[in-house]
Design brief:
Layout lengths: L1 H13 L2 H12 L8 H9 L5 H37 L2 H24 L4 H10 L4 H33 L3 H24 L4 H4 L1
Helix pairs in contact: 1-2, 2-4, 3-7, 4-6, 4-7, 5-6, 5-7
Length: 200
Amino acid sequence: MLSQIIDATVNWADNWGLVGLAVVSASEAMFQPAPPDLLVIPMALNSNGSISEIIAIVLVATIFSVLGSLGGYAIGMYAGRPFLEKFVKSDTISRLDNIFLKYGTTGVFIAAISPIPYKAFAWAAGSGKMNLNLFIFAGILGRGIRFGLEGFLLGFYGDEFSDLMYNHFFWLAGGILATIFFIPLSMWWNSLIQNNSGDS
């Protein structure tokens, strides 16, 4: 069911270019499950290295994602913690709580670029009444870096990446590097889960 919603959302937005990207970016930060990355990546690949087009893609995704997150922030602020616990997995809530607790203001930035759904981050920020200026700044920085890397790397080097897909050495080296980075990253990510009931 969820995959069908995501597919339908992306297919609709794909016909509307930057307008579709803006709608998906804003709504994903509030309530819907389709991440803007599913549009940013193919749009960047099809930009043919046009700097103006790539910048437009990154800016639209970033700005509207942050604008939409303000709606998510409001939902969390008015609906409170019960809403967060009803619609967000307990592991995700635990990770958010620990990120904010362990890393303070830096945690806001980490949450903005992490795999945690951006709407869950926005709901949690609103529920905890996080400083709004900090929330917006971290969102701009985190979303900008995430979409910027996707947009510029694939926009300028998309053909090279496509060619590498047929290079066996690339897959070997990539697998080794992925393993080196994945193990400590996975350990850190899993360490963010805590038993909230056991902490009280």
